[in-house]
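Researcher: Let's do a round of design. I'm pasting the structure tokens now; please hold your answer until I've finished.
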């Protein structure tokens, strides 16, 4: 700068320098764009909302058989909601009223159960509270949604056969307030299906007693109805995976090689704190929300690992679940760090709480073992509880294999497993029972009196008799 410049000139120059420096820091916008078309191979359509009111969602579900190409080159008649596999995603905001008009075009009766949602007992879709929807008939479900989270829907009659034929879909309840989005949503409905060489669906009673007793795992694993689909990602740009295990019996255990993974949610919405994980296991019925902030690295295939629910001395080789395509673009930037606390989850006061014992068991019989709960192998067991009380249930499994316990209508917290508290507080509706382990759960019942169900969510087991009732009395 020449000394001939005036002080005014110098002042203007300094001001410009200061402004430009400020721009560099404050105005550079975060770049959190996903790669173009990143979820095209996976995006599931939302059910159309037929009610213009902002806080009412009215959707129409038609249960019907359609022919789809699930395995390339083969035509398979599957049972669907609205012709889609999985069914359309139901989406509402916390506090909304949801009306679902169901039409049954199947050759047999059905119902729809809203897995995880705290609906009135009469809307829960079980045979104890509702007349099954006969072929050609309809039913209108109507309820409010109180909890944000990842839920799902499926039939509750002959559920192994009907879910196995393709009847399931996701139900997402969004937070009303400005909840931190944590990343772009990617819904992953995982399931499996058994398709024969000629494209036909394997019979629902395939392998007879063996199928019932061991639980039918489909030969093909599907993610959003697809075989080995691809999702694209970019380093530095977070994704929020909402994963549902809609398989009849398959425990889904998977990892994301080379990428850090943090579980942020479970069955009943956000966990209390983020939980870094190396891999995820979802038992049938269970959900997880995962925060994936990719680091630079290789594209990978997510391995589907053997969850070994039979506790065999050998482990099966990994299969292929889905591809993660890490695009060759400069990394995004500006993702806020995950908060240390995701949500408030109060601990449940259990002093003076009534206790009940629930034993998943089996009994020898001339035609092979049968499965049941507390000595009842025909689904006739009924436990009693009172509205607006807290109960502590002690869950045990005296069989030789794992079983996922599921309770309708109410969230619970796991207090401890063999005396050890879980790492993070969470609301759940499904928990795995390992043989010989004791799981204590606390259930805060509210005022929704009626008949509720609890059962093993290996649906073949539930249908076989590992199912019971909870009569919640006013
Ligand atoms: Cu998803 Cu009775 O269950
Ligand atoms: Cu349920
Ligand atoms: Cu079971």
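Researcher: That's everything. Go ahead.
Model: Designed sequence:
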């Amino acid at each position: 700068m020449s000394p001939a410049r005036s002080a005014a000139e110098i002042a203007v120059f300094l001001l410009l320098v200061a402004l430009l420096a400020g721009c560099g820091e404050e105005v550079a916008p975060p770049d959190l764009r996903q790669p173009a078309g990143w979820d095209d191979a996976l995006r599931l359509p939302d059910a159309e909302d037929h009610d213009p009111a902002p806080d009412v969602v009215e959707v129409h579900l038609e249960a019907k058989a359609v022919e789809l190409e699930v395995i390339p080159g083969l035509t398979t008649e599957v049972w669907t909601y609205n012709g889609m596999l999985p069914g359309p995603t139901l989406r509402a905001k916390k506090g909304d009223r949801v009306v679902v008009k169901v039409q049954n075009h199947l050759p047999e009766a059905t119902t729809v159960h809203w897995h995880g949602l705290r609906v009135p007992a009469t809307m829960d879709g079980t045979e104890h509270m509702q007349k099954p929807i006969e072929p050609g008939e309809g039913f209108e479900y109507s309820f409010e949604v109180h909890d944000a989270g990842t839920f799902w829907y499926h039939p509750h009659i002959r559920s192994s056969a009907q879910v196995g034929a393709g009847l399931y879909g996701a139900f997402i309840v969004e937070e009303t307030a400005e909840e931190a989005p944590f990343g772009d949503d990617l819904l992953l409905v995982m399931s499996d299906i058994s398709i024969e060489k000629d494209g036909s669906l394997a019979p629902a009673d395939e392998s007879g007693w063996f199928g019932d007793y061991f639980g039918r795992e489909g030969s093909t694993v599907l993610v959003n109805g697809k075989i080995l689909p691809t999702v694209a990602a970019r380093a530095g740009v977070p994704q929020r995976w909402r994963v549902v295990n809609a398989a009849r019996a398959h425990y889904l255990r998977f990892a994301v090689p080379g990428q850090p993974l943090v579980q942020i949610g479970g069955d009943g919405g956000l966990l209390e704190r983020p939980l870094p994980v190396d891999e995820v296991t979802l038992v049938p019925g269970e959900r997880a929300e995962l925060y994936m902030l990719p680091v630079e690295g290789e594209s990978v295939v997510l391995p589907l690992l053997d969850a070994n629910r039979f506790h065999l001395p050998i482990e099966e080789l990994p299969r292929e679940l889905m591809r993660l395509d890490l695009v060759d673009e400069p990394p995004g930037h500006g993702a806020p760090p995950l908060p240390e606390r995701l949500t408030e989850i109060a601990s449940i006061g259990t002093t003076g709480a009534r206790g009940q014992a629930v034993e998943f068991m089996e009994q020898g019989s001339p035609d092979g073992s049968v499965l049941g709960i507390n000595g009842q192998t025909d689904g006739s067991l009924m436990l009693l509880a009172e509205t607006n009380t807290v109960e502590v249930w002690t869950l045990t499994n005296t069989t030789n294999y794992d079983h996922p316990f599921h309770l309708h209508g109410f969230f619970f917290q796991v207090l401890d497993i063999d005396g050890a508290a879980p790492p993070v507080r969470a609301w759940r509706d499904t928990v795995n029972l390992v043989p010989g382990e004791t799981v204590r759960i606390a259930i805060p019942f509210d005022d929704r009196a009626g008949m509720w169900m609890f059962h093993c969510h290996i649906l073949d087991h539930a249908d076989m008799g590992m199912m019971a009732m909870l009569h919640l009395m006013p």
